[in-house]
Amino acid sequence: MKTIIILAHPNIESSVVNKKWIDALAKSNPEVTVHNLYQTYPDWKINVDAEQQLLAQHDRIIFEYPVYWFNMPPLLKKWFDEVLTYGWAYGPKYSLEGKEFGVAISTGGVEDAYKAGGADSYPITTFISQIEASAKYLHANYHSYHVFHGALSSDATERLEENAKAFVKFVTAV
Ligand SMILES: Cc1cc2nc3c(=O)[nH]c(=O)nc-3n(C[C@H](O)[C@H](O)[C@H](O)COP(=O)(O)O)c2cc1C
């Protein structure tokens, strides 16, 4: 299974969580393609043909990003709008049919806050449901998600070690 990570972090150099994940992956499995959108397109001019070719070459597509205002960072939303075009991704032709979609996200909010009535109002799955719905719409298979909560909490560093191992497993699981 050929896997690509579509990484959308506006500043990966100053990231703690997403950088740790990518570093852990690089140490254990160089086969996975890591495609950093903000580094590839500093001018936000997405090369749609190149992106579609990249997707076509992989079987598993994982969207990795920090949650910003309960959503994906804006360049990733632009990527969805521009790359998943009618006639290529859906319509008469479904080029991503049968591919596997997954999501890996980090949040500042702690795990307990992501529930009905909690500080973040809804379960975390609410905020990635748009990707799950998109997968279904594109005739792709939604796989599942990996999450790290409480990125700013005092115990984040020690929890991140184990979590990064789980991330690698999530990305490389057969
Ligand atoms: C602009 C902005 C918006 C954010 N919005 C949220 C949010 O809606 N929910 C949340 O739990 N954390 C939010 N955070 C915290 C980030 O999700 C958190 O810092 C990030 O996941 C940590 O990952 P990193 O170390 O890779 O940057 C926000 C951070 C920024 C900078």
Describe the protein's architecture and organization.
The protein has a five-stranded parallel sheet with strand order 2-1-3-4-5, with helices on both faces. The protein has a single domain, classed as Flavodoxin domain (Rossmann fold, 3-Layer(aba) Sandwich), CATH 3.40.50.360. Strand 3, helix 4 and strand 4 form a beta-alpha-beta unit. Helix content is 38%, strand content 18%. The model has no long low-confidence stretch (mean pLDDT 97). Helix 1 packs across helix 6. The chain has six helices and five strands; from the N terminus they run E-H-E-H-H-E-H-E-H-E-H. The relative contact order is 0.19. The site of flavin mononucleotide (FMN) has 17 residues, from helix 1.
In the CATH hierarchy, the architecture is 3-Layer(aba) Sandwich
Count of separate structural domains: 1
Distance between the termini: 7 Å
Rg from C-alpha positions?
16 Å
The CATH homologous superfamily name equals: Flavodoxin domain
Query: What is the CATH level 1 assignment?
Result: Alpha Beta
* CATH third-level topology: Rossmann fold
> What sort of overall outline do the alpha carbons produce when their principal axes are compared?
globular
Q: Can you list the ligands bound to this structure?
A: flavin mononucleotide
Largest sheet: 5 strands, parallel
Number of helices: 6
Q: Strands across the major sheet, in which order? A: 2-1-3-4-5
Estimate percent helicity.
Answer: 25-40%
